[in-house]
Write a structure and sequence with these properties.
- The two termini are 35 Å apart.
- This protein is α+β, with helices and mostly antiparallel strands.
- 39% of the residues lie in helices and 16% in strands.
- The chain has a 6-stranded mixed sheet with strand order 1-5-6-4-3-2, with helices on one face.
- It has 2 domains: 76 residues, Phosphorylase Kinase, domain 1 (2-Layer Sandwich); 204 residues, Phosphatidylinositol 3-kinase Catalytic Subunit, Chain A, Domain 5, CATH 1.10.1070.
Amino acid sequence: MPDFPVLEVQPDEVISDEAMGSKTKFWFRRGEQRWLFKEARGGTGEDWAEKIASEIAHQLDVRAATVELAIYEGRPGCASLTFANREKGDALTHGNEILAGMVLGYERDKKFHQSDHTIENILAAIRSMFPNDELCKASLTTLAGYLVLDALIGNTDRHHENWALLRKAPELVLDVAPTFDHASSLGRELQDARRQALLQNGRIGEYVRRGKGAIYLRKGDAYGENPLRLVEYGTQQYAEYFLPTLRRLPRVAPPQIKEIVDRVPQTRMSAPSKDFALAYMSYTCQALNALIK
């Protein structure tokens, strides 16, 4: 299979900066499409982590933003195709805004250690937003699918601005927005020497289980729950929402995952990074498949 293409963003395509988040990013237009360029911070694999996550999500039939590898003025990054066209009246409401309207005392601007961002508070908020039983179940199943994806790739950044509801114009029907922003995945922050040491010493499982997420099990917990542990808990408590995505895991068995990872250009992702990502997802695939009854 050929390498994934790399979009070369031109200065005259740039529209505006994007303030949300911590990375350098801007909007650009190519033809009729509006994209968000996100520069990969030096020494990280934020660009390839985003691309792999997007490809795996689509294979798993998890609704996700379309992502391409990109470069702007020699700076590597990724480009995410917009799914909310504000110019046409689409409205995106992030999790912090939703929970601030539903949970007494919720601090919507709190960036870290927001222990009110619990799985139970999210469930209660969605149930309030979607009183129709069928729409509520569909919405919660979609969100649970995002958490299964997080567990598979080790996304530790599902904070309350990294999920949202979308109201599309002109119909103005409220729905769960596609999942987005998966740069904090697959050990993208590690140096190759550390990756090789973890692989050689058989410590992948330890690394997977040590990661802290941004959704909490209980208010007042010191840390967000590990993404894999969160799905293990969620499947025990709310199986009807989690099992539909878990049952689609055979679509991303190790051979399919390897094909995706292999298509990332070597200039973007080193051989140890690829070996580590494959070992990481081999472990999480096995753990997630064990939840299916």
